[in-house]
């Protein structure tokens, strides 16, 4: 092959979410000449607009806060929740993730990342063996002015110093004392930053911004609007890549490999229809079209879990885009239920969002449930923030689109929802009985610590259950949306892409939503998307940085 090379480097990283940024940082830290590319005009990927949490069992901050944990207990919990559904959830992959936590944490801390523990956030199945409260981490609000000109091209969702550990309390800022106190603290935090000339972002913006700051200090080139077009392969080894930059096609020689961290296919309607049966109602940003997955498959990579996603309830937005808003506390807080198109409950409204999405699909096979309805009484609206309806003018626009209906009685609400009146009345009456005695006999809502995370401690006897009896009543259409897809290239414990018969493709790595998730079909805890994306990005770059002569003929280390 006589390829004309425009650049020669050690490592090319594709994508600027947690996977790509972590891989680029690690590669440069280990002496690799690295270039980072992004297909859109904004960097940060889904990470930048996410909650920014990382599920990191047995991390150093847990130890400092006196929270007992171990790799053995975390592995037991992962086995309980995930099992082994394929090579991507193998024992080696799970243990590589768990053993990578401390090294990844310490690398980023040493580079200036300021970690914070979400000590009250439970695992999503805290009652299972090995379950814990406090395994999730996030990054403290970051001053994005440190990014200079790159701040203008940062993908942004919440341009404020909000933290994940704030959100659960601020969502009830005017209905509980603890929520009010946290709201006041948040206001003073925001004002404090502005008074000192800082512009602080929290949640996913803090994490992505902190990583980007390291990239800039390491002087790693970042090319925006530069999609990967193909891989160059010689003797069954990836030796380079074809990239479109400024409208020009260029060839980059990669001596140590290519890391695919370009995200999933949440925005690819054709693929969504093919693999999921729907075109998708995603909260993920544009650019998630699956190009990295397609290019990896063309190079010989095997795909898996393409039928799954990081599901959750979403609702239509009013900004003119197709991007949906994620529904989280709204469905778990008291004075609310979720019903199908006949008016019946069919799930625990407070369960983890992946389970919620799976149950919507399961229900829809027998009774129409896409979309379903989130039914609330007036106390829900008065007591809790809603990410969708709190935007000025949103309620009016959602009503005009038929996404939201209101009525003075349950009977009239049923008519506007076009569900059976008697069924909805019966559902509400039965739920109200549960709320009064504090036990949900049908779906056990409010039983676990995770259920109760989003709730109201002032509601007794069960903080998740509140009777639906105070008018006006409201019903909002909700859909099985997602935070991104979770199927893609199958990788090993070193983040190497696997081909047929499980053999690694030398020189090709992948992480994040480009890959079949190590978390399988479930979601063990808050940050189970970002943490493995970052850690396998780190592990892949670490593997690529090993001396070349140590690679044997199968691509492994001798």
Distance N terminus to C terminus?
Answer: 29 Å
The helix content is: 25-40%
Largest sheet: 8 strands, mixed
Question: Strand-residue fraction?
Answer: 15-25%
SS summary, helix count: 18
- Helix-and-strand structural type: alpha+beta
Radius of gyration: 24 Å
What is the oligomer described by this structure? Answer: single chain
- The overall pLDDT, averaged over residues, is 93
Work out the number of β strands.
21
Shape: globular
**Uncertain segments of ≥5 residues (pLDDT<50)?**
549-558
Question: What does this molecule look like?
Answer:
It contains 18 helices and 21 strands. With about 550 residues, the chain is α+β, with helices and mostly antiparallel strands. Strands 1, 2, 8, 9, 10, 11, 20 and 21 form an eight-stranded mixed sheet that branches. Strands 13, 14, 15, 16, 17 and 18 form a six-stranded antiparallel sheet that branches. A hairpin with a 5-residue loop joins strand 20 and strand 21. Helix 4 (about 70-80) packs across helix 5 (about 90-110) and helix 6 (about 165-170) crosses helix 7. The longest helix has 20 residues, at about 90-110. The relative contact order is 0.18.
């Amino acid at each position: 092959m006589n390829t004309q090379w425009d650049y020669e480097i050690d490592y090319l990283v594709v994508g600027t979410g947690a996977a790509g940024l972590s891989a680029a940082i690690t590669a440069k830290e280990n002496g690799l000449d690295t270039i980072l590319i992004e297909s859109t005009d904004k960097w940060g990927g889904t990470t930048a607009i996410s909650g920014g949490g990382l599920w990191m069992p047995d991390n150093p901050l847990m130890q400092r806060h006196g929270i007992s944990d171990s790799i053995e207990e975390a592995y037991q919990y992962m086995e309980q929740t995930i099992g082994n559904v394929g090579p991507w959830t193998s024992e080696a992959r799970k243990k590589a993730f768990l053993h990578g936590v401390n090294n990844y944490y310490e690398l980023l801390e040493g580079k200036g990342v300021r970690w914070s523990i979400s000590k009250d956030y439970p695992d999503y199945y805290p009652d299972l063996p090995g379950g814990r409260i406090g395994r999730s981490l996030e990054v403290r609000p970051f001053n994005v002015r440190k990014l200079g000109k790159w701040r203008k091209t940062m993908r942004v969702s919440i341009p404020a110093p909000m933290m994940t550990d704030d959100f659960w309390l601020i969502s009830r800022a005017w209905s509980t004392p603890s929520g009010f106190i946290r709201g006041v603290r948040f206001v003073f935090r925001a004002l404090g930053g502005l008074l000192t000339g800082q512009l602080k972002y929290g949640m996913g913006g803090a994490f992505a911004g902190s990583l980007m700051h390291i990239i800039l200090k390491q002087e790693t080139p970042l090319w925006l609007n530069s999609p990967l077009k193909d891989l160059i392969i010689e003797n069954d080894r990836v030796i380079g890549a074809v990239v479109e930059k400024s409208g020009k096609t260029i060839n980059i020689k990669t001596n140590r490999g290519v890391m695919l961290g370009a995200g999933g296919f949440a925005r690819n309607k054709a693929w969504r229809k093919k693999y999921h049966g729907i075109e998708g109602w995603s909260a993920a940003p544009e650019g998630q079209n699956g190009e990295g997955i397609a290019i990896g498959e063309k190079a010989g990579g095997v795909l898996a879990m393409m039928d799954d996603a990081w599901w959750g309830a979403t609702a239509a937005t009013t900004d003119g885009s197709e991007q949906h808003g994620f529904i989280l506390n709204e469905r778990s807080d008291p004075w609310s239920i979720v019903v199908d198109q006949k008016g019946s409950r069919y799930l625990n409204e407070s369960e983890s969002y992946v389970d919620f999405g799976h149950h919507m699909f399961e229900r829809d096979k027998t009774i129409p449930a896409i979309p379903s309805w989130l039914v609330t009484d007036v106390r829900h609206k008065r007591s809790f923030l809603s990410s969708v309806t709190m935007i000025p003018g949103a309620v009016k626009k959602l009503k005009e689109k038929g996404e939201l209906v209101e009525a003075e009685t349950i009977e009239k609400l049923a008519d506007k929802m076009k569900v059976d009146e008697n069924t909805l009345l019966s559902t509400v009456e039965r739920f109200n009985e549960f709320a009064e005695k504090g036990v949900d006999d049908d779906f056990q809502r409010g039983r676990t610590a995770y259920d109760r995370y989003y709730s109201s401690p002032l509601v007794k006897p069960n903080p998740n259950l509140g009777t639906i009896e105070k008018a006006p009543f409201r019903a909002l259409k909700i859909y099985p949306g997602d935070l991104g897809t979770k199927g893609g290239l199958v990788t090993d414990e070193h983040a190497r892409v696997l081909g047929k018969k499980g053999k690694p493709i030398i020189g090709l790595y992948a992480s994040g939503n480009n890959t079949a998730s190590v978390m399988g079909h479930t979601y063990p805890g808050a940050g189970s998307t970002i943490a493995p994306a970052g850690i396998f990005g780190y592990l892949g770059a670490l593997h690529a940085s090993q001396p070349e002569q140590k690679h044997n003929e199968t691509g492994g280390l001798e």
